[in-house]
Write a structure and sequence with these properties.
256 residues
Length: 256
């Protein structure tokens, strides 16, 4: 499933649609071939439509379950953006109460750090981006340590360090959340079940003696679209559905 992370979503959706169309055609021609082997003429006397309803119902359940997994991860990433913006903003406000020169140096580094976090959010994770974040965190921690040793109000300095430590933890949490995906086995089972369901659909259509090409094609397009959306949400770095970074942008604007 790792290949799905690099392929264009449009191409993946088209391949899924073609695979489902092929599965329906396989089921349809398979039933016709069985009838010819048995020497039967025309459609069968009865078809197990109730089995098809059960299979499609379970497919809908699996789709809903997988979509819920992807959406939960999306919501987690969105909440972490808000939490990190709040933590950096709290650090900024508390740093403004420090004595000089710690106040000026801390404010400058926090602006640079906010810019670095916005840049990290807008691009794919690269080693240089994380190295910049780690370097700025070390510089901020060093300035905060100097403020604690020199400041006459150690409680304020510790409050700054607590807020700053929370923002660092949230940066690590966002990295972990961005790396989290729907388990590959879940996607494999979902795609396999969808293909087998379409084989059964083709078999039932052949048993009824009608292909219903337009209705079947529309159903397969909707199913392919649903699967593509699930894959899109599960792409935190390159998908079309991205988490808004507006909380960080608003924070950076307030730091001016």
């Amino acid at each position: 499933m790792a290949a799905l992370d690099d392929a264009p979503l449009g191409l993946i959706g088209l391949l899924i649609l073609l695979a489902l169309l092929s599965a329906v055609e396989l089921g349809y021609r398979g039933h016709i071939g069985l009838r010819r082997l048995r020497g039967e003429q025309g459609p069968g006397k009865g078809s197990p439509d109730h089995l098809l309803s059960a299979v499609l119902g379970l497919l809908a359940l699996l789709l809903g379950f997988t979509f819920s997994l992807a959406l939960n991860r999306y919501e987690t990433r969105r909440e972490l953006v808000v939490q990190e913006a709040n933590a950096i903003g709290t650090t900024w406000l508390r740093a403004r109460l420090l004595e000089e020169p710690a106040r000026t140096e801390m404010s400058r580094l926090l602006r640079v750090y906010a810019d670095a976090r916005i840049g990290w959010s807008d691009h794919e994770v690269r080693a240089t981006d994380m190295a910049l974040t780690a370097r700025l965190q070390q510089q901020l921690w060093a300035v905060a340590g100097s403020a604690i040793r020199a400041d006459s109000s150690p409680q304020l300095s510790r409050a700054v360090m607590d807020a700053m430590n929370e923002s660092f933890d949230l940066a690590a949490a966002r990295l972990a959340a961005r790396s989290a995906h729907i388990p590959g086995r879940v996607l494999q089972v979902l795609l396999l079940y969808a293909a087998l369901s379409m084989v059964m659909l083709g078999y039932i259509l052949a048993a009824n003696g009608r292909h219903h090409r337009i209705a079947t094609s529309l159903l397969l397009m909707l199913l392919s679209l649903a699967l593509t959306i699930i894959l899109d949400i599960d792409r935190p770095r390159s998908g079309a559905i991205q988490v808004s970074q507006q909380p960080l942008l608003d924070l950076r604007q307030s730091m001016r």
